[in-house]
Design goal:
about 230 residues, about 30% helix, eight-stranded mixed β-sheet, 3 helices, alpha+beta, globular, four-stranded antiparallel β-sheet
Length: about 230
């Protein structure tokens, strides 16, 4: 018999934030589906979860001001549901949430409660127990010099790219071909710079995709303009 599960992880962009002022921080959310198979069973494509949802309840003084890689259904001022689609075996997905958090006293404070729900491989509704995600606040000014977690930063940048492509596409549709091409190529150059600086293949792959899209958009829209 196969057993499937949803494995999740939450990572703040910083382990500590300043207590004496409002903060804007990013939270990387990752989820993965895994199947436990009988040892002799051959590997096949396997859907672990359908209708994956992440339900968030914000603490007082906390707002979500940015979503990267998903859209939210806001139930009220402090409760949101993120519809995250389906998940296949051994696939990991990511989204990034941008929070604005009011000032707090020094110490550890809860920020958001997160609960996952999904439909499993035998069509049962599964509710994963709620988890409270907290953050450390400090009055030590040295934390201001600490770099953002590189994985959180990377996925925030990568997940921004679809909205940048949408902006470029709007420029092409309005006939501003140079502007549209420039939007994509600036972003591709940025991805390439990160790839060279960090030796990160994901940045390099994203840069190549965006360079290719820049050429494809320009060729397509320029050809259409010539025909018309």
């Amino acid at each position: 018999m196969l057993q499937s599960g949803l494995y999740t992880n939450f990572t703040w962009c910083r382990n500590h934030v300043i207590a004496s002022s409002a903060n804007r921080v990013y939270l990387l959310v990752e989820w993965r589906g895994t199947v436990t198979r009988p040892r002799k069973q051959k590997s096949i494509f396997y859907r672990v979860a359908n209708q994956v949802q992440l339900h968030l309840q914000l603490e007082a003084g906390v707002q979500i001001i940015g979503l990267y890689g998903c859209k939210a259904e806001r139930l009220n001022g402090r409760n949101l549901t993120l519809n995250l689609g389906s998940l296949s075996e051994d696939v990991t997905k990511q989204i990034v949430l941008k929070f604005e958090i009011g000032r707090r006293s020094s110490g550890i404070h809860p920020i958001v409660s997160a609960m996952w729900t999904y439909i499993d491989d035998v069509h049962r509704s599964v509710v994963v127990p709620s988890r409270t995600i907290s953050l450390q606040f400090s009055n030590h000014t040295g934390i201001l010099r600490r770099d953002m977690d590189h994985r959180v930063y990377k996925y925030q940048k990568l997940l921004e790219n679809p909205s940048i492509l949408e902006s470029a596409l709007r420029a092409f549709e309005m006939g501003y071909y140079e502007e549209g091409e420039d939007i994509i190529r600036r972003r591709a150059d940025e991805m390439l710079l990160y790839a060279l600086r960090l030796g990160d293949f994901e940045y390099l792959r994203e840069a190549e995709i965006m360079y290719d899209l820049s050429c494809a958009f320009l060729e397509s829209y320029a050809s259409a303009s010539t025909v018309s």
